[in-house]
Amino acid sequence: MSERFWPSKKPKYEYMHGWLGYGNKEEIQRVLDNPDVNIICELGTWYGKSAEFMMENSKDTVLICVDLWSNQDIEDGNQVIKYNDKYGSILDKYPLYETFLGNLWKHKERIIPLKMDTKDALRKIKQMGITPDAIYIDANHTYKDVKAEIELSMELFPDAILFGDDINWNGVKKAVV
């Protein structure tokens, strides 16, 4: 099923960049070790570092990766990360979406990439008749977006395990606490 979401040939880009600390790996591994978790939806994927970790540490998990894969800035209250200022040289050399596809190509039979807004993607997943067992929230870090992702996830998939990272971001912390 996932192959219909992938291009016919592997993109030329491969470059891994991202953030995945020890604590994140432990949290993800706890979810992967749960025998009731077969489908995970990852909201926010970037180049696929956490997706790669999930695929490499699970043999059967299906992963739905959701991201805009654009160079849009992230806003978090008064804090703004300007992608082009901070990551411009990387983004110019390695386009996000094509590089994600290249990085995760060997796992394409177990990954469904959805290039769209996270809330739209959650609704689309529901319309497709897919019920994720867990949802990893790591997209835009604004209070408004994180709160909306949590609330919509709970509404559409009330039995799903919700987990994520970046609690040190003001918007994430406010939405979770």
Radius of gyration: 15 Å
Mean pLDDT level: 87
Please count the beta strands (DSSP E, at least 2 residues each): 7
Elements, N to C (H/E): HEHEEEHHEHEHEH
Q: What is the spatial order of strands in the main beta sheet?
A: 5-2-1-6-7
Terminus-to-terminus distance: 37 Å
| Uncertain residue ranges | none
Q: DSSP helix count?
A: 7
Helix content: 25-40%
Roughly what fraction of the amino acids lie in strands?
A: 15-25%
Q: Would you tell me the structural class of the helices and strands?
A: alpha/beta
Question: Which descriptor suits the 3D outline?
Answer: globular
- Main β sheet profile: 5 strands, parallel
Task: Give a short overview.
This protein has helices at residues 22-32, 49-56, 83-93, 96-104, 118-127, 143-156, 170-176, and strands spanning 39-43, 62-67, 74-76, 79-81, 111-115, 134-137, 161-164.
